[in-house]
Write a structure and sequence with these properties.
12 helices, 7-stranded mixed sheet, alpha/beta
């Protein structure tokens, strides 16, 4: 019975890698890499990553790993569970990365895989751990890879930012992943009309401006992120205070938090 449930969950899994591969094919640019690099350094409040060993958990498109390389990291190790995400990150590493960038395929939930990795000055996982199917185990395993006095930079979908109940969005995600290509496009249109335009046609021009300037946020693309939001499954929402409490119990202190968006960004230091 349990294996049947697991099979059903796997069938619902969103094709994250396909989404990120499309992003790299159609939207990649050096400008986006530089935007991502500058946003990362600004959040960390450092000028560069020189002499830092960095781990990117759930590298997705590989854009942010490349930004870490460009920021001067001593070494960058990227991994992703999704085969196509692994392939896309590997493509960027081969095309743009030096020898200090390593790409692997693996799961943050796999204790044997995680134990094969060393510890790092910076462990980074943006918008990933809540998609693993076991967010608390993922947080625990990821946090154990941070060196003493190292930094843990994560972003988690926050219960506190929702105006609807979590079940509302979980049901939407299931519909999206079970749906045909047409169903997916209609749900994307529905999201834009309801949540971006507020059912107001006059808001289209402000949305268009937002779409054009959206890359200033971590170098990403608005439509790619909408698909990721609607389709992202498995999925768990976490309250900000629960995430802080969980990591403080494990020897971390909260350095910085940025709320107000669907993803809350946290920066922790390992004591």
């Amino acid at each position: 019975m349990e294996s049947l449930e697991k099979q059903k969950e796997e069938e619902l899994r969103f094709l994250f890698g396909k989404n990120w591969n499309n992003f790299i094919q159609f939207h990649f640019s050096e400008e986006r890499v530089n935007i991502s690099k500058n946003n990362l350094l600004a959040f960390l409040e450092v000028g560069d990553l020189a002499n830092w060993d960095v781990l990117d958990i759930g590298s997705g498109s590989g854009l942010h790993s490349l930004a870490m390389v460009k920021a001067g990291a001593k070494t960058v190790t990227s991994f992703d569970y999704d085969e196509q995400s692994y392939s896309t990150t590997s493509y960027l590493a081969k095309k743009f990365g030096p020898n200090n960038w390593t790409v692997r395929q693996g799961s943050v939930l796999d204790s044997n895989f995680m134990s094969s990795l060393p510890s790092y000055q910076l462990v980074y996982s943006w918008g990933v751990l809540h998609h693993t199917g076991d967010v608390w185990k993922a947080l625990k395993n990821a946090s154990e890879k941070v060196k003493p006095n190292g930094l843990f930079f994560i972003a988690l979908y926050s219960k506190d930012a929702l105006t609807e109940e979590p079940e509302y969005w979980l049901n939407i995600k299931k519909r999206y992943n079970r749906g045909s290509g047409l169903t997916k496009r209609l749900l994307e249109l529905w999201y834009i009309v309801k949540f971006e335009l507020g059912y107001n046609p006059l808001a289209f021009f402000s949305f268009l401006k937002k779409y054009r300037t959206y890359k200033t946020q971590r170098g990403m693309n608005k439509l790619v992120d909408i698909r990721d939001w609607l389709g992202g499954w498995p999925m768990e929402f976490v309250s900000d205070k629960d995430a802080v409490f969980f990591l403080e119990k494990r020897g971390f202190e909260l350095v910085k938090i940025k709320t107000g968006e669907a993803n809350t960004e946290f920066l922790f230091r390992k004591l």
